[in-house]
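Work Package 4 report. The design task specified in the project plan requires that, given a folded chain encoded as structure tokens, an amino acid be chosen for each position. We show below one input record used in the internal validation round.
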């Protein structure tokens, strides 16, 4: 770097003297000085200077060599060094302009950056460096393969056949019939529980689930992803990153839980990623999202929590509650005792509520017996 600075300073002194006429020999005329200064501007070739002054290219070369203190080789070297420095300075200015645009247009496409700044898109991408991942998100149009009524009808049919409200079981049941996964009704209606409520399932009550992660944990996962060395911020890139970081929630889980598109999620956490936390309106939320987490330990705790004996839980609940042991009454007991909810038990055993009661040796109501008989037949 020191050698480069010395070269630039020497080149600058050479060109400065030739351009202002102080580096000419005593016998040089005013016209000679103008010819030399014109060539040393770097804006004209020997041929072009010759045309301007009505002389040959060779005569221009002779005047430079005989009437100035420097040779053509010296001048060409100095012009080359100056050109390199100009390109470097221009690139720095362009990089600053691109960085400023990026900070003010988080989530916008590289195509828009190129149009706004007047640069080639590839040049913008190169100048952005690692920040380019903040501008590779593309909002894709959503395909509505199933209408709202069709989704609600599927949910009711699923519940009637299985007696379950498990999203994972719905995915298994539905996809075997060419239907959607649980994400489709969850995203369409905002949450899985809201979709169930609109379908009239569980007496219109939203299904309460035991959660491994809080909403803030889901936001935090996106922040950690954006701070990684991922090459883009797309949901596809997140899933690839998640494959190597399985302790984090899935991309589909994040979108379903937060009820937003991936682009909206990315834009919401950008101030946290770029260090502009003061721009966030809810500072308490920002602090909780940025809190350091031990994701592996969170997974381990959840796994330990899920090591339950459904039969023992149902027997304990029945001993306190008595008949009828409905899923609603059981959940009230489970919340009070900090135990696993019914939806998680049905998911774990892949059985209906009535069948679990039979397996646990708990007395069934006539309606539960009828349901168990229907499922067995």
């Amino acid at each position: 770097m020191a050698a480069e600075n010395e070269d630039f300073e020497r080149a600058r002194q050479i060109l400065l003297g030739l351009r202002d006429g102080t580096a000419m020999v005593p016998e040089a005329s005013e016209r000679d000085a103008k010819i030399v200064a014109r060539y040393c501007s770097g804006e004209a070739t020997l041929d072009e200077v010759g045309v301007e002054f009505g002389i040959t290219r060779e005569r221009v070369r002779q005047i430079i060599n005989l009437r100035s203190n420097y040779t053509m080789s010296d001048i060409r070297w100095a012009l080359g060094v100056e050109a390199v420095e100009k390109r470097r300075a221009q690139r720095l200015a362009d990089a600053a302009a691109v960085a400023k645009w990026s900070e003010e247009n988080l989530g916008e496409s590289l195509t828009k950056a190129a149009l706004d700044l007047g640069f080639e898109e590839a040049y913008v991408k190169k100048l952005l460096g690692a920040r380019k991942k903040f501008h590779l998100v593309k909002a894709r149009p959503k395909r509505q393969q199933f209408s709202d009524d069709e989704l609600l009808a599927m949910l009711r049919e699923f519940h009637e056949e299985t007696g379950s409200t498990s999203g994972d079981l719905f995915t298994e049941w539905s996809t075997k019939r060419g239907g959607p996964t649980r994400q489709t009704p969850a995203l369409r209606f905002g949450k899985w529980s809201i979709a169930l409520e609109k379908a009239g399932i569980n007496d219109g009550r939203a299904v309460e689930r035991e959660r491994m992660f809080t909403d803030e944990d889901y936001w935090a996962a996106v922040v950690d992803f954006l701070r990684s060395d991922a090459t883009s911020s797309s949901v596809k890139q997140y899933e690839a990153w998640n494959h190597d970081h399985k302790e984090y929630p899935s991309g589909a889980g994040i979108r379903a839980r937060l009820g937003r598109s991936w682009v909206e999620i990315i834009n919401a956490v950008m101030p946290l990623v770029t260090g502009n936390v003061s721009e966030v309106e809810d500072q308490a939320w920002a602090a909780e999202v940025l809190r350091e987490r031990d994701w592996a330990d969170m997974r381990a705790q959840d796994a330990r929590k899920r090591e339950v004996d459904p039969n023992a839980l149902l027997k304990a609940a029945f001993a306190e509650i008595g008949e009828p042991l409905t899923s609603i009454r059981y959940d009230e007991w489970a919340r009070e005792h900090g135990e696993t909810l019914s939806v998680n038990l049905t998911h774990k055993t892949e059985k209906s509520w009535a069948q679990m009661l039979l397996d646990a040796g708990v007395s069934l109501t006539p309606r539960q017996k009828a349901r168990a008989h229907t499922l067995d037949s």
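Confidence is low (pLDDT under 50) at residues 203-210. Validation will be extended to a larger panel in the next phase.
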